[in-house]
């Protein structure tokens, strides 16, 4: 069973639909017991970093996310969900994240010819043998919607990068923690392959 965490940050139904298309059993929930008993957990999200952290704390989901991270349950952050796993964001004048991974969320720099937010398809440069990308080729295209990007502090956890005015750490992996800045659930067959790879990952820290 895959638990999709509901903290009023949207993008839940599309993730649920993609998982069901793959034949995966899943549920949208904010119930602690269900999240803790799940084989895998997904933290999706769209919207503002500060408000998302407020919601996680309001529902005390920050605690259960920390617990499942420590326990070794595979956890996948998607878009805003990736950003929340890190130390903090420049958005909203600065907001503190979950500190499960080391890095900062920064505003995409203004660049002539590029619109912000970054909305659309970009190719990935794969590196460091990410388990989410098993069987996928270099330069696969995925779908992004974001104005802020990750700058991870540990180079070895970065499994995919893309470029949009700057180098964006598009996917990371460390032990049982996985995250994508892009939306696999909106990225066609490539995205479904990524979600299938996540669903196949066994629990426990590597």
Summarize the structure in short:
This protein has 206 residues and is of the alpha/beta class.
Intertermini distance:
20 Å
CATH fold-level assignment: Rossmann fold
Helix percent band: 25-40%
Q: What Rg do the Cα atoms give?
A: 15 Å
Supply the helix-strand structural class: alpha/beta
H-E string: EHEHEHHEHEEEEEEEEEEH
* Major sheet details: 8 strands, mixed
Mean pLDDT reading: 93
Query: CATH-wise, what's the superfamily?
Result: Class I glutamine amidotransferase (GATase) domain
What tags apply to this protein structure?
Rossmann fold, 6 helices, 206 residues, 4-stranded mixed β-sheet, alpha/beta
List the topology elements:
Elements: E1 2-5, H1 12-21, E2 26-29, H2 32-37, E3 40-43, H3 49-58, H4 61-71, E4 75-78, H5 80-84, E5 88-89, E6 95-96, E7 103-107, E8 118-123, E9 125-126, E10 141-146, E11 148-152, E12 158-163, E13 167-174, E14 177-180, H6 188-200
What does this structure look like?
This protein has a single domain, classed as 3-Layer(aba) Sandwich (Rossmann fold), CATH 3.40.50.880. The protein is globular. It is 27% helix and 30% strand. The strands form three sheets. An eight-stranded mixed sheet has the order 2-1-3-4-14-13-12-9, sandwiched between helices. A four-stranded mixed sheet has the order 6-5-7-11. It has a two-stranded antiparallel sheet with strand order 8-10. It has 206 residues and is α/β, with parallel strands linked by helices. Strand 13 (167-174) and strand 14 (177-180) form a beta hairpin. It is built from six helices and 14 strands. 42% of the residues are buried. The chain starts with a strand and ends in a 6-residue tail after the last helix.
């Amino acid at each position: 069973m895959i638990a999709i965490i509901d903290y009023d940050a949207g993008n839940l139904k599309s993730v649920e639909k993609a998982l069901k298309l793959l034949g995966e059993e899943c549920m949208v929930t904010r119930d602690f017991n269900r999240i803790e008993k799940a084989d895998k957990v997904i933290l999706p999200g769209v919207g503002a970093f500060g408000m998302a952290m407020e919601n996680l704390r309001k529902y005390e989901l920050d605690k259960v996310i920390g617990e499942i991270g420590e326990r070794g349950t595979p956890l996948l952050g998607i878009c805003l969900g990736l950003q929340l796993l890190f130390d903090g964001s420049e958005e909203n004048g600065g907001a503190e994240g979950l500190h499960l991974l080391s890095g900062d969320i920064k505003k995409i720099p203004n660049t002539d010819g590029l619109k912000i937010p970054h909305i659309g398809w970009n190719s990935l440069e794969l590196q460091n043998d990410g388990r989410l990308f098993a069987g996928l080729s270099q330069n696969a295209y995925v779908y992004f919607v974001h104005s802020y990007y990750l700058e991870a502090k540990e180079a070895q956890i970065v499994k995919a990068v893309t470029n949009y005015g700057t180098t964006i750490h598009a996917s990371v992996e460390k032990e049982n923690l996985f995250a994508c800045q892009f939306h696999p659930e909106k990225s066609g067959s490539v995205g479904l392959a990524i979600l299938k790879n996540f669903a196949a990952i066994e629990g426990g820290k590597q």
